[in-house]
Each structure stands twice: as structure tokens, then as C-alpha cells.
Amino acid sequence: MNTTGLNAQIKRTSLVDAVYESLLEAIVSGGLAPGAELNSVELAQQLEVSRTPVKEAIKLLIHDGLVEQVNNHKARVAQFTSQDICEIYELREQLEGAAVEKVTQSIDEKVLNQLRSESELLLQTYGELSWASKAVNYDIRFHTILATESGNRRLLKEIMRYRLLVRGFCRMTGSEETLLQALKEHIVIIEAIESREPLLARQAMVSHIQARKETVLEQLFTEE
Predict the structure, then answer these.
(1) What is the CATH T-level fold of the domain 6-77, as seen in this structure?
(2) Angstrom distance (rounded) from CA 93 to CA 201
(3) What percentage of the chain reaches a pLDDT higher than 70?
(4) Per its UniProt record, what SMART domains does this chain match (predicted)?
(5) 201-224 per-position pLDDT tens digit
(6) How far lies 102's CA from each of 194, 195, 200, in Å?
(7) Hey, which of 8-22, 38-52, 167-181, 196-210 has the most confident mean pLDDT?
(8) 3-state DSSP assignment of residue 49
(9) Which of 37, 106, 189, 220 has the most CB within a 10 Å radius?
(10) Is the pLDDT reported for residue 172 higher than 90?
(11) What is the mean pLDDT of the chain?
(12) Under 8 Å between Cβ of 169 and 85
């Protein structure tokens, strides 16, 4: 098997994600206002990366409706509103709700126990140095593991696409208090999975995503 370039591909993909999140945060925060042109050369210089990950990140933003490019003209920031946030999180409810229903019936017990142990340890160490960073990393693993354990590759792909989209929101609104509340909601989801009640698990996931949506709306669109 020819493995040449595999590590480079992983690094490149991670770099595209990082550029995407940076541009997303700038769009949501108003740093890149609606109508602003996205010049890949200038952005690459500002972010200290090559043009390739910038161009790929812009393509992702166009796909997600956050950037517009009509008839191959210059890419410009689209108008971004609270309605966009609602639509994004509603899709997450459907996708991750479906995934956790499947997971409840099939997840490996060791995987579930690991999620439980990590969540309890985080809860016990709240307030310690670097706790917020650990909580963010756990949040990413939690949702990724559940999506993966669903066993549906296409569902996983869509969930991860929307997870990338909301990670920028989470970093902008992720105080220790909101991360702690999200952690408690994760534990409720774990308990529902442990009970092997698919509908209960789905409702716990949907409630969690709705709560995160309200936090984002409150902190980013208080004046609308």
C-alpha cells in the first residue's frame, strides 16, 4: 500500500478546519462584515498560511451559505442572522438525535463507560487550571464518538460537517459556566443511553442542542 502523503493530507485537512473556524468567528463576530470581500492572498498573509487552505476554507463557507460567490465573481461575506443559527441547530437536532437513537441500541459498553468516567472526572475537577480547555476537548470527543458509534457513515459525515460549523460559535460563547452546563447535559445523555431507551436518549440530545442554541443566540444576537 502506498502511504505517501497521508500525514500531509491529515495536516492539510486540519489546517483547512483551523482557517475555516477563524473565518467563521470573524464573520459571526462582525470582524468580517456582510459584503466584505474575501481575498485569499490577503487572508493567507494575515493567517500566515498558504493560499490553498484559505481557498478550501472559503469553498466550505460558500457551501454553508456564509459566503456568496455569484457567477465566479469575488467571494463576499453573506448576511448572517439569528435565523441562520436556528436553522443550523435544528439540523443538528435531527442528525444527532437520530444518531443517539441508534447508539443506544448498539454502543460498546467500554466506550460508554469511558465517556461516563471522563465526564465524572471533569465534573469533579471543575475550576482547576485548564479546565475549560479540557471541557472543550471532551465536548468534541463526546459528540464525535456518539456519531461514530451510530455506524452510519453518511450520518457521521453530516454531523461532523455541522460540528465544524458550530465549533466557532462554541469558542466564542464557551465560558466555564456554559461548558459546565453542557457537561451536565452530556451526563444526562449518557444516563439515557445507559437506560437503553432510544427515545429518551434522543430527547436528551435534542434538549442539549436546543440549550446550546439558546446560549449562542443570547450572546451573539442580543440586539436583534
Answers:
(1) Arc Repressor Mutant, subunit A (1.10.10)
(2) 12
(3) 93
(4) FCD (SM00895), HTH_GNTR (SM00345)
(5) 999 999 999 999 999 898 877 654
(6) 13, 13, 12
(7) 196-210
(8) coil
(9) 189
(10) no
(11) 88
(12) yes
C-alpha cell at 26: 470573524
Give the per-residue pLDDT at 72. 73
Task: Compute CA distances 84 → 48, 59, 216, whole Å.
Answer: 30, 18, 12
Dist CA 33 CA 215 (whole Å): 22
Helix (H/G/I), strand (E/B), else coil: 77: strand
Query: In 10 A of CB 209, how many CB atoms?
Result: 22
- Write the Ramachandran bin of 135: left for phi over 0, alpha for psi from -120 to 50, otherwise beta: alpha
Q: How far apart are CA 205 and CA 42, in angstroms?
A: 41
- DSSP assignment letter at 2: -
CB-CB contact of 76 with 69 (8 Å): yes
Give the separation between CA 112 and CA 175, rounded to whole angstroms.
26
- What whole-number distance in Å separates Cα of residue 206 and Cα of residue 212? 10
Q: Where are the alpha helices (DSSP H) in 30-130?
A: 40-47, 51-63, 82-106, 109-124
What letter represents residue 27's amino acid?
A: I
pLDDT at 61 over 50: yes
Decide: helix, strand or coil at residue 76: strand
Partners of 67 in the β-ladder = 77
Angle 151-152-158 from CA coordinates, rounded to 5°: 130
Q: Mind listing the pLDDT tens digit for each residue in 38-49?
A: 999 999 999 999
Q: What's the whole-number mean pLDDT along residues 12-25? A: 81
